[in-house]
Design brief:
Rossmann fold; seven-stranded mixed beta sheet; globular; 11 strands; disordered N terminus; two-stranded antiparallel sheet; alpha/beta
Length: about 240
């Protein structure tokens, strides 16, 4: 009788051994896919977790100007410096109001300033971030304004819109302040100004108006200008 084992049993032992080996390997593989206890998988992270800084930067803020609140992330002023702004301390009031509003801007906001009389003068032809240095420069510029000349609003308002349109901020606001009806060289330009400003506002930026007088003609013009340009109107008369 031969001592050698027949091929049948050997084959059976080999099959059993391979089966046990494969089961053990599968167990090790499944175990290796498990995350260490207490460590969340990447899918457990909240969606948009990396965007909080951007959301914070684009959040609108509120400024006060002549007692009114304006909410946005970019502000562009168009300010009257005509000769009548020398009456009753109107120009000094304007300088104080602009100073307070500009100083309240956060560094994330953008802004610029334009002023008008017989001519148009501009602080910056591009939107500026409201850094401490830029705010100080803008306030210094405002304090150099001297009342003189006519109330030629339209060119200055269009210039302000052109500066505003360069900003990519989603909540831009424009503010026009005046104490008189648009008049250039003794000619009432109200209808022309209304048409030109509204046509130039093709990006439909809200244009808010403040009238610091109490005559009905000027009030009607500023009300209509704001209404046609998605803005608010406010009359401030001493």
């Amino acid at each position: 009788m031969s001592s050698m084992m027949s091929p049948g049993p050997l084959r059976g032992w080999a099959i059993c051994f391979m089966t046990l080996f494969l089961l053990g390997s599968m167990g090790l593989t499944a175990h290796s896919l498990e995350q260490p206890e207490g460590r969340p998988r990447p899918l457990d992270l909240p969606s948009g977790g990396g965007g909080s800084a951007d959301d914070e930067e684009d959040a609108p803020e509120t400024i006060l100007f002549y007692g009114n609140g304006y909410e946005g992330d970019a502000f562009f002023w168009c300010l009257d410096k005509s000769g009548s702004m020398d009456w009753g301390g109107a120009m000094e009031d304007l300088k104080q109001e602009v100073t307070a509003s500009v100083n309240s801007l956060s560094p994330e906001a953008e802004f610029s300033l334009v002023s008008f009389s017989s001519n148009t003068v501009t602080w910056s032809p591009q939107p500026k971030r409201a850094t401490s240095a830029n705010k100080a420069a803008a306030i210094a510029w405002v304090n150099t304004l001297v009342p003189d000349g006519w109330t030629c609003l339209s060119p200055a308002a269009i210039t302000t819109l052109q500066i505003c349109n360069q900003s990519s901020k989603p909540s831009r606001q424009m503010i026009i302040l005046s104490d008189g009806v648009p008049t250039c060289d003794s000619v009432d330009t109200s209808n022309t100004a209304l048409s030109e400003i509204t046509s130039a506002n093709w990006q439909q930026v809200p244009i808010h108006t403040i009238y610091i007088n109490d005559d009905s003609e000027g009030i009607s013009f500023m009300q209509l200008l704001a209404a046609q340009n998605f803005g608010t109107f406010y009359v401030f008369a001493n």
